[in-house]
Specification:
Elements lengths: L5 H30 L14 H19 L16 H6 L27 H6 L13 H6 L2 H11 L29 H7 L14 H12 L12 H14 L4 H14 L3 E4 L8 E6 L25 E6 L11 E4 L1 H12 L13 H4 L2 H4 L5 H10 L1 H10 L6 H4 L5 E6 L2 H4 L2 H9 L16 H26 L22 E6 L4 E5 L8 E5 L1 H13 L7 H23 L4 H11 L5 H11 L15 H12 L17 H11 L3 H5 L4 E7 L8 E8 L21 E6 L8 E6 L3 H8 L5 H11 L8 H15 L16
Parallel strand pairs: 1-4, 5-8, 9-12
Antiparallel strand pairs: 2-3, 5-6, 6-7, 9-10, 10-11
Helix pairs in contact: 2-8, 6-8, 14-20, 15-20, 19-21, 20-21, 25-27
Protein name: Fatty acid cis/trans isomerase
InterPro entries: Fatty_acid_cis-trans_isomerase
Keywords: Isomerase, Signal
Length: about 800
Amino acid sequence: MIFKNKHFKRACYFFLLFFFSGCAVYAGLNLDQLFGKPQPQERIAAASSPIANHYIDTVKPIIENRCVVCHACYDAPCQLKMSSSEGIDRGASKEKVYQGTRLLAANTTRMFIDAQSTREWRDKGFAPVLNERVQTEEANTQAGVMARMLKLKQSHPLPGQEVLNPDEWDFSLDRDQQCPTIEEMTSYEQNYPEWGMPYGLPQISDKENQVLMNWLANGAFMATAPPPNAKTLKKVADWEAFLNGSSLKQQLTSRYIYEHLFVSHLYFSDDSQPIFFNLVRSRTAPGKPIDLIATRRPYDDPGVDRVYYRFQPVRETIVDKTHMPYALSSAKLARFNTLFIQPKYEVASLPSYHPDVAANPLISFKQIPVDSRYRFMIDNAQNTIMGFIKGPVCRGQLALNVINDHFWVFFVDPAMANTPSVDEFYESQAGNLRLPAENESNTLPVANWISYSKQQGRFLKAKNAFLNTAFKNGEHLTTELIWDGDNYNDNASLTVFRHFDSATVTKGLVGSQPKTVWVIDYSLLERIHYLLVAGFDVYGNFGHQLVTRMYMDFLRMEGESNFLSLLPTDVRHQQLAYWYQGANKHLTEYLQGNINEFDQPTGIKYHTSHPKNELLGMLQKKLNVVLPDRYDFTQSKLNQNGSLALYKLNRISGKQASLLPEITFIMVEPTQPEQQTELFTLIRNSAHKNISSLFDEESNRLHAQDNVTLVRGLLGSYPRAFWHVKEADLASAANQISTIQTEEDYRAFLDKYGVRRTAPDFWSFSDKLNEINQQMFPIEAGLLDYNRIENR
């Protein structure tokens, strides 16, 4: 029967709405009658107690290796962060952090920042996943979401399919999330019986499941991370003493350091088992408990007369996607003194925290010499750039289609810019270098975009005029312009890979020569940090996020233009035309006008018909002493046949490359049992006509020009696919994957060598992969994220 009466339809709709709402209410009332009303429980066991030791030694490893691999950071499904005891107790929320269409900025829900207790999180709308009613075994397993999800998975394991039905399973980043409360669990179990946890992955073993169920039944008692030892606390005290000196010079220095390191994980390099710390702002001085100042941005008004900078131990499991280790030592402390304290300059007053000042580092820190600021950032350039690669801005295709899939980064030698005229130029351009964050988290995109576009044009005109004078006759426009790391610092060059909706940055020049290259100077590096790290609010409205992404277009083109200035004048235009094939009229005019008004000839003598390749060869030679070989696959210990297979994999291009995922992790089991298992990463580099299109990226794709980069070790936080290959079979695998022509061919390859998300041995493979990675790189390694594993 078809109902045509719209009023009847509406009545049916509201009946169903109230019916299902009523079911949840009824379930809540029923739970209340059975187990009492809910209230947060005290779950943190006393340190060193048997219960705490049981959690740390037995329960926590299972949660980390089976749950945290999907539930960590801002993009954890349902905001359920299981990377800490406090996060598990906080529970879940139906609100999404990454919501690019919201009209107004959302309230922040940052773990350990925006609330300090479970009860406070309940007031913010978070629902428990642990039972908060009467604490009995029956209640703890019947009235807890986590327990019910585990039981659901055990009773409904994955269907016997290698590739799950895409009509029934959605693994997209923006998928609808159910996020059931305990009152909604019965309905969830009926509607989605196969969606127990872990979602879309094999069930955990019976032994692991029993450990977790027993732990839940007994009240889910947990333990916090142990406090640092006395030796480490002494180092903390020394650093906090430095950062909290009373002079205006020291206070300004500490503010600058904090605003650049607040997302990093600080550690002491001489500790045998390093503990990681966050640098935070506190109302209390060293020696007293930290009273955290919680603001949206690191430069927002703290609301106190004096800010203290404190070391707060990281209480969450280290996961690769947010882990940015930053080494501290006595030598680093001496370096900070050399950069910021010893130079002779006066700090007359501290800068305002008002957004039109604080959001622009060229204004707020103008009293600190440019040379000091620039050297501070490039000393650890990977960490600086990593902020926008691993920070909250870096999530999703729209946020990342502002960069190419593979490019190299060089830096202007600070010695070339250490002159009074450079300082004066940056000060004169402060107004033209304003950033979107000055409008805070609610922004109207169109009006602000036009304004920032005009100011960037004015800055580039002024910059080109300044450089035309500074580099008259091209006398300094040579490879001497490029920083060589002072012949010891391996941060002198970086490689950035974009993996569609995630990205990676590493030291050195990894892979073959890329299509585009950036050369970064002080102002560009500073603006990238304040645009995408210090100034970006992941909870901001769509206008803030959109303008931030669009502004990054300017900064990318500026970095590319800096590189092009080293090429012959006519080649600059040819390269831009190639990099921006099919660009719209407005962008073309911008590129031909503002970007290219610098017309000084290069001082480099070229001898071939491919000056870009020649220049990159010169720069590789110049930086050879500081180029790391950590990711060089030719350093592997495989036999000759295995090594030849690696070369074959690295040459995959065109259609074969376009059929591959963005990131594939490869485990190769050695022929000789005494040799160590080797790990590799196969990265697909997607080719584009240009990357200026905001929404229709696919129309700019050049699939026939796709290629790959093979590296030794794991590179990337979000694997899309896994291969598990015996060394003796590697040549055969390389031959097969190099000849695939269709999706069916790729699936046939995975049938033989892949470890799909449905594989029975998925978890044992995962454990071995993470274990080897941790052994190889104990400081840098963190747990991988499995939210992007493909279903192919």
